[in-house]
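Quick review question:
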């Protein structure tokens, strides 16, 4: 029993070290990613979710960002900034303190357009 506790404690200590920076794990994560335009039927507002991974050290995630703005992560309902990490255990993308997003499909290219699927939502690279 004592050995089992030591092993479990060791796994817990090493678990954070198993996360990898998204840009190093797969360089195709780098760039600006946006979802299709979504219309809020109650307000008529148009918005998109956005992910911006500029480097190994800087990334941002925006939820319900204004679609009429040409700036990155503009007018978002909520946003998070920090490092973009890919977790090994659950294969999720995490940007700063944002919620973990399950990677359904890593970045892939179709007819010159890069896409990825996170939490069932398709993001397009710009």
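Suggested answer, residue by residue:
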């Amino acid at each position: 029993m004592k050995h089992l506790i030591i092993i479990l404690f060791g796994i817990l200590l090493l678990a954070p070290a198993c996360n990898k920076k998204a840009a190093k794990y797969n360089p195709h994560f780098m760039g600006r990613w946006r979802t299709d335009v979504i219309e809020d039927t109650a307000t008529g507002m148009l918005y998109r979710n956005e992910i911006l991974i500029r480097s190994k050290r800087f990334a941002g995630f925006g939820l319900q960002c204004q679609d009429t703005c040409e700036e990155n992560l503009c007018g978002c309902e909520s946003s998070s900034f920090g490092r973009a990490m890919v977790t090994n255990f659950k294969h999720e993308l995490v940007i700063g303190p944002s919620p973990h997003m399950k990677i359904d499909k890593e970045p892939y290219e179709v007819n010159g357009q890069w896409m990825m699927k996170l939490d069932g939502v398709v993001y397009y690279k710009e």
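Why it works: Residues 34 and 50 are 5 Å apart (CA to CA). The mean pLDDT is 83.
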